Amino acid sequence: MKNSSITGTVFDIQKFSIHDGPGIRTTVFLKGCPLDCRWCHNPESKKSTPEISFISEKCILCGYCASKCPNKCHVIDGRNHSYDRAKCLRCGKCTLECYSKSLEVVGKEMSVGEVMEEVLKDLPFYETSGGGMTISGGEPMAQFQFTKVLLEEAKRNKLHACIETSGYAQMERYREIIHDVDIFLIDFK
Fold this sequence. Notes:
The protein is built from five helices and ten strands. It has helices at 64-68, 112-120, 123-129, 144-156, 171-177, and strands at residues 7-17, 25-30, 51-54, 74-77, 80-83, 103-106, 108-111, 132-136, 160-165, 183-186.
């Protein structure tokens, strides 16, 4: 696989997507967006770096995170769990065994090969439904080289390829990928 070692920051790979292009699709959500839209449908994708997501309502106050955090960012006090993001190193140690999934790392460095391995697992669904792979985000064009190689690999594997974009990139970039994209969904959500 040519350029399969190129990496990007992915925050989710969603299987059985039916709203991100025709047929049954796998949507690859990338981190990072140069815009700050109030109506953003994936605000966890705005920053290009991994983040720690904390949903206090899910926390069962077990104290695992407080015992593993090297910077003591988590404090369990009676029926409350406070999390000091300013002190956080984003190492993810607090999330490793969070039973309730109230703490999770959002964003993971992945190679093109790793992403394609996940996407190709659902090849039979694409073949029977006319689906394929959609690259979304964030803004996929913010990780242009990664997006470009993902699209090339999709075409090499005869997958229908779609990109969900705000359109916020240099026109030359779109010209570079146009032959590997079957559908552009511009400001779709």
